[in-house]
């Protein structure tokens, strides 16, 4: 060992706790969770099984509207949450994770409907024929006229009434399949 090297050797392994960067990551994670909790509707907070003082502080944080004051209040809320530890917030994290999954599923659902609508508008009679084969109960004449109107609205930069109506019909069809 060199005289200027004070670091402990491998055989003297001591637990110095989390590194400073790990502490910072944990603090930022807790701040992110605090932001998510404050953004939730007040009716959902009691269902998350949070400590009472945290629920009260979330209510106080919602009342603060000035930017810097709110930022400071959020930091204080995160500090209070860190005192309780991660175990106190496992239910809240699970509930927020389920929300994200549901949002992703809903977004994917909307994208599927939009893609089906585009297929109808771009695909012509072949796409309409496929849809009519799957759903023979559809009003063929009405849907064909909506597709023509939607194309015309798009080309003329008019309000997209027929475009939206096609989306509604596709949404109803998908709901009836489930």
What report would you give on this structure?
This protein is mostly helical and 178 residues long. The protein contains seven helices and no strands. Helix 1 packs across helix 3, helix 4 packs across helix 5 and helix 6 packs across helix 7. The longest helix is centred in the middle third of the chain and has 34 residues. It is elongated and about 80 Å long. The model has no long low-confidence stretch (mean pLDDT 85).
Radius of gyration: 28 Å
Derived structural class: mainly alpha
The residue-averaged pLDDT reads: 85
Q: Please write the string of helix (H) and strand (E) elements.
A: HHHHHHH
Parts with pLDDT < 50 across at least 5 consecutive residues: none
Give the helix proportion (percent range).
over 70%
* Largest pleated sheet: none
Terminal CA distance: 72 Å
Per the principal axes of the C-alpha atoms, what is the gross shape?
elongated
Q: How many helical stretches?
A: 7
- Beta-strand content bin: under 5%
Q: Give the beta-strand count.
A: 0
Helices and strands in order:
Blueprint: H1 20-39, H2 52-63, H3 67-84, H4 90-123, H5 125-134, H6 140-156, H7 161-177
Can I get a quick summary?
Helices cover 72% and strands 0% of the residues.
